[in-house]
Amino acid sequence: MKFQILVDSASDLLSDYVKDKNIGFKVIPLTINVSDREYVDNDSLNIEKMLADMHSNKKSSSACPAPESFLQEFDKAEYTFIVTITSKLSGCYNSACVAKNSYSKPENIFVIDSKAVSGTEILLVDKLLELIKQELTFEQICQEITAYRDKKNLYFILQKFDNLVNNGRMSKIAGLIASKLVIRPICIAHEGEIKMAKKIIGIKNAFTKLVSMICEKAKDFSKETLIITHCYAEDEANFIKNDIEKKCNFKEIRVLPMRGLCSYYALEKGIIICH
Q: In the chain, how long is the greatest CA-to-CA distance?
């Protein structure tokens, strides 16, 4: 096989996402540790059980995959692309780079830091598939996917910030503002880090402002896909989808449930939007 794509489970993708027999694909799982129990973020993870267990225990954390999880896949294709969660929030990118530098042909491995999570990783996988099918060279694909990554946008609205704060992914002050008051912050990914973009009173007002912020990015979205992922917030995600469809001409809008890692940090009613 000439090309394969590896992506971590922070992408919210399932293992059967790519069905092209000529392109290898695998989701490398992160893990969530709750007290003395380890939850592997794979297709069979019971997210509801994991969250319930986490809510009843004070001690929990997440862990990135070991370099060996990536390294053992490299011999399955001549060239490998790896898409990871932002390096500012996880060690996954570094783990993949360690694996690359341990391999006999590191020049055939390309690790791309998504500088985001969830839907952005999905969009990067989709773009890689498109570029591979165009029969571009490995070097050309590396250049194209990096340029594409740099144009992506990520927004999120959460109603709980406990794990982001407790695990050092968000400042305690921002978390306090978000969780103790009626203010609902709209956050963005900026150079791979979480930034608070707007502070809105009320969740419905926050949804409306979020849609407005997305529509302000461009006049024509006809060639773009937008992905909404959610943690037990399908109704809210579809409310946002319907509002965006009225105001922006995206080629496609997908609504998908979050997997384990994103659910762990976004928690119930969390929503991430990427385009």
A: 55
| 63 Cβ neighbours under 8 A, 6+ residues apart | 30, 31, 32, 33
What is the spatial distance between Cα 26 and Cα 35, in angstroms, rounded to a whole number? 28
**CA atoms 163, 164, 169, 172: torsion sign:** negative
Which has more pLDDT, 218 or 72? 72
**What is the distance in angstroms between the CA of the first residue and the CA of the last residue of the chain?**
30
- 8 Å CB contact between 147 and 206: no
Within 8 A by CB and 6+ apart from 164, the residues are: 158, 170, 175, 194, 265
The pLDDT, as a whole number, for residue 107 is: 98
Which residue do the tokens 């986490």 mark?
54
- Tokens encoding 188: 């963005």
Helix-, strand-, coil-residue percentages of the chain, each rounded to 5: 40, 25, 35
